[in-house]
Automatic annotation (TrEMBL), chain A:
Keywords: Membrane, Transmembrane, Transmembrane helix. The chain crosses the membrane at residues 34-55, 92-112, 119-137, 143-163, 184-206, 254-272, 284-305, 336-359, 379-399, 419-439, 460-481, 501-523, 603-622. Residues 72-122 form the NADH-Ubiquinone oxidoreductase (complex I) chain 5 N-terminal domain. Its main location: membrane. Coiled coil: none annotated. One of its GO terms (cellular component) is endomembrane system. It is a multi-pass membrane protein. Residues 139-430 form the NADH:quinone oxidoreductase/Mrp antiporter transmembrane domain. This is NADH dehydrogenase subunit L. The keyword Zinc does not apply. Pfam families: Proton_antipo_M (PF00361), Proton_antipo_N (PF00662). It is found in: Endomembrane system; Membrane.
Automatic annotation (TrEMBL), chain B:
This is NADH-quinone oxidoreductase subunit A. It is an enzyme of class 7 (translocase). Its EC number is 7.1.1.-. The gene is nuoA. NDH-1 is composed of 14 different subunits. Subunits NuoA, H, J, K, L, M, N constitute the membrane sector of the complex.
TrEMBL record, chain C:
The gene is nuoN. The lineage of its organism: Bacteria, Pseudomonadati, Pseudomonadota, Gammaproteobacteria, Oceanospirillales. It is found in: Cell membrane; Endomembrane system; Membrane. One of its GO terms (cellular component) is endomembrane system. NDH-1 is composed of 14 different subunits. Subunits NuoA, H, J, K, L, M, N constitute the membrane sector of the complex. GO terms for molecular function: NADH dehydrogenase (quinone) (non-electrogenic) activity; NADH dehydrogenase (ubiquinone) activity; quinone binding. Its EC number is 7.1.1.-. This is NADH-quinone oxidoreductase subunit N. One of its GO terms (biological process) is ATP synthesis coupled electron transport. Belongs to the complex I subunit 2 family. The chain crosses the membrane at residues 6-29, 36-58, 70-91, 103-120, 126-145, 157-177, 197-222, 234-258, 264-286, 293-312, 324-345, 365-387, 402-421, 442-464. It comes from Modicisalibacter muralis. It catalyses: a quinone + NADH + 5 H(+)(in) = a quinol + NAD(+) + 4 H(+)(out).
Amino acid sequence: MGLPMTLLLPLTFLLPLAGTLILSISRGTLSERASAFVGVASIGLSALVTGLIFLQFLAGDGAPQTVTLWTWIAVGDFQPTIGLALDGLSLTMLGVITGVGFLIHLFAAWYMRGEEGITRFYAFMNLFVFSMILLVLGDNLLMLFLGWEGVGMCSYLLIGYYYQHSTNGWAAFKAFIVTRIGDVFLAIGMFLIFLELGTLNIAEILQRAPEVWARGDTMVELAALLILGGAMGKSAQLPLHTWLADAMAGPTPVSALIHAATMVTAGVYLIARMNGIFTLAPDVLYLVGVIGALTLLMAGFAALAQTDIKRVLAYSTMSQIGYMFLALGVGAFDAAIFHLMTHAFFKALLFLSAGAVIVSCHHEQDMSRLGGLWRRLPLAYAGFVIGGAALAALPLITAGFYSKDEILWQALASGNGGLLLAGLIGAFLTSLYTLRLIIGTFHGETKSDNARHAEAGRGLVHGLPLVVLAVLSTFLGAWLQPPLADVLPASPGEGVHAWHTALEIIASATALAGIALGAWLFLRRREWLARLAGQGWGARLWTLWNHAWGFDAFFDRLLVRPYRGLVRLLSGDPLDGLIGLSTRLAWLFNAGLTRTQTGKMRIYATSMVFGATLVLLVLVLGA
Amino acid sequence: MNQNATALIAEYWAVGLFVAAVVTLCVFMIGAASLLGGRSRGRSKSLPFESGIIGAGSARQRFSVKFYLVAMLFVIFDIEAVFLFAWSVAVREVGWSGFWGAAIFIFILLAGLVYDSRVGALDWAPKRRVRVDDSI
Amino acid sequence: MLTMTHLVALTPLILVCITAVAVMLGIAWQRHHAGTAIASAAGLNIALLSVLVIWQMGPVETPLLVIDGLALFAAILILISTLVCVTLAHAYLEKYPGPREEFYLLLLCAAAGGIVLAASRHLATLFFGLELLSMPLYGMLAYAFRERHSLEAGIKYLVLSAAATAFLLFGMALLYAQTGRLDLAGLAVALTEDPNAWALAGAGLMLVGLGFKLSIVPFHLWTPDVYEGGPGPAATFLASASKVAVFVVLLRLVLVAPAFQGDWLHGLLAVLAVVTMLVGNLLALAQSNLKRLLGYSSIAHFGYLMVALVIGDGLAVETVGVYLVTYLVTTLGAFGVVTLLSTPYSGEDAAALHHYRGLFWRRPYLTAVLTVSMLSLAGIPFTAGFIGKFYIIALGVEAERWWLVGGIIMGSAIGLFYYLRVMVTLFLVEPGMQRRDAPHDWGVRAGGVVVLGLALLVLLLGVYPSPMIEWVKLMAVAGS
């Protein structure tokens, strides 16, 4: 027994929207405390509602439910509805968004204390949660797209939150523009789907797609490719990944919520949601896996050579989403979503712990100026250790182990040896850079005054989110199996068990080997490493990895500069003149017509007579 | 169209002739007078001429705005009262509903009259205007 | 004979008239600004309620008037816009040094005229309604007669409107001469039997007369001057209620009378529609006066609306209904902001765009209202204006009138420019600019509340338009 879904589902996103409205209408009349309260409470209530929905959903038969709120406009055949769909997949996403979102909002109350414009911060954060929920609950692609653009906008606003520094503004620009490239692909994909299938409703699309398209049809491959383009932009996968590392310019809770736990995983959600299209396009699906594998390797190496804590985490996020893409690519949609969930837990934990370190050390986030903090910041240290263990997939006791193991196992079961190998190398790299991050931040000597005067955060607001997320990052979090069986197609590894244990052992060994090597390198051989990175090919490699394989420079050469050159070339172009002609023509007409507005009544009356004569002439002569 | 035009001409030729005759007559009278009549010019010739007496003052006299106001009110009430004639002719045929209609009509007129007098539109002297200004 | 049913069906009209007389007597008894405004608003509200009651009655015909879905729909729109004008006038006239109460009297008379006009089924009521609508408007436009522009607007409208009325009357006379009938149904029958050039000429001249009120090119030249000069509430009424009433009667004529359905007339209407939307938008392009700009924009919008007249079947009535509702709400919002920022006491209305420069930094909510209105006028999705424009374009596409559709799209593209220009101005900061401001407590006053409500309605209609559409459909069914 419970409240009807028609009420509960809209409540999940109306509450954050209400928060946004209250905060934006208050216009700075609310105190910092009140703003934070409104911002956190709206998400908290939304999370409670989600909990209710969860209970009801589990109590029911688990069948997907749709709630059609209303038809937007009904003109002829075009009748876009505003409807919500709830199934295991969207419920999982909803849980992650509101649950983890709530914890991050709570933590932000501590993190943002004393910052300027806290109302603005919470208004944007609530708006983000609103858009994200719309994205996962929408039952048609139009609403999904609306949410998709909404989160993009909020991401832009929040990356540029500290707008006084122009670099932050540029980072926000970059994120917006790069993801926009993906969005254009997605939009075209939507048009294509509407053209071919005549609907944008997701359930209908999945139902009609196999009827209209044969497996491997060019059209369906094209549609899948375009959707993939959108997913790549949002989820920061090769080659549209360059924005994510710069996006760390935003406040750390933003990085935790938007650029680790939720928004960047929207691409994974999208592909899982459109699984029917992708299973019809096996080539594209394979491409998804390859992109994931390449990204996870690329980002893994890049993470090794970062000195900024948040950038390490950003590359690690890319790499972990690469794992999810890899899982999608081998057809293991539920493994991808499972990893999405556990990743949200431990990556949020890592980011929040990083936030704790950053605030405690007076906004110092460069590893080369930190170090030796484990005694001063025990809670953040614990967060890093647990989150890092989950990230490195330490066997048996961490959530990350179960989800990542599942992905590797599915890769093996589907027979993609190359992808499996990439996954294993990635796992090794993950352990390595995780250990480097923890040791660099918390061990060794303290390298700056800021770090020397670190003050540990206190209070429930600071501690609770870290503790809860830490618990969820252990094997306890892996017990939360998302109810996906009815929604997503069966994975290739279902029912097969041969080699599973062997793989588990290999994967664990890889992770442990990475940790062991890391411990040896970063604790014992630090001088040697520093020397290595300081000269010769070591230095070159360091620079290359530090710049994440130089994609930025590459794109700058490949796209930005030619584009600007082209623009310069075309600025005096006749084509441009032709387009400008319409404007000039409009102004010309405007000038001409404005002359008729003389303000003289006789002219006006004359024009009336003239018009009447014209009317009469036309009518009488025409009849 | 052609047939129509023919029919029209057939129907209205007399009117056309009349119009033409009028125009011709006017042109003839003015034209003949200007051709045949003599002309004399002089300083006093262009003065306004009223029964042999030179006009006193300007013709552009300023009337009190009240003059127009009262004239206008007169026209309005007069014209509206004309409707009552229509009723009086048919008072038996239209019966009670006609009576009530006329009563409402007269009531509205009366209300208008009351309004006019209270606002001071009917006062000739400007003294009462002060009351209006005071009440603002 | 007039029966009880007739009287009941005419209740809204009667109520408005009673309110007018009562207000007049009230003024004669004692002048009280707030009291007059409240009495007018109360009367209009009761009339509005009575419309909702009468809604269930079904069409009722008196010899001169027809109370059907279309008439009631128009009555609702007219009453609502009059109500908005009353609240705006209350804010606007607060500090006015001359007599303030008569404005409401004029407003009520004009509203009664609009209701008659929209319900007319006889040329006599058509003419009478139109005049009753226009006459008070002369007074309203020249109300702040100490302002040169206001007086000018009143006189201009008076003279030109009289000229237009002459055309209208001439057209009626021709129709009467040809058929010997004055009721629309009789006219329709007589003209079907014997259509000829005279009847067409009559129809054409009536079109000129009505086209003037709707400011259709080339009868549009008065619009910007009058909008600019007239006091805010008067211009609001002119742009909203007056246009709605006239358009409804034109729709009725086109739907009923076959003389208005000839190929040539249709062709003419189509050309006028395209020319109107283009010229309206082009004229607004360089306009730096917000009231004039809104005037031009209303020209363009009625150009769009004429598309429905030209097509005249299928979704046309529904389209007209939807478009009128969205246009009305938006226009009232936009003019409401202009009115709230102006008072007749401190010189002419705040209309020049530079008055609005940086308004956002002083009056964010008021700016939000204006922004929403501008977006809606431009037809951006999720505002009411989009729904209306969508309907018009859908209608044009369905009827395969590509020229009209092309005109709408070109017009909208041009329109976007100047609507956005206004919005940009609102958010600019430049110190030392001339500033006009609303009173500090505008938000809690009636006018402010109404304007905010209108802005919310614009958004609501954009996101959740289906109840409105259902309602309009009901009207369209009842009206045909």
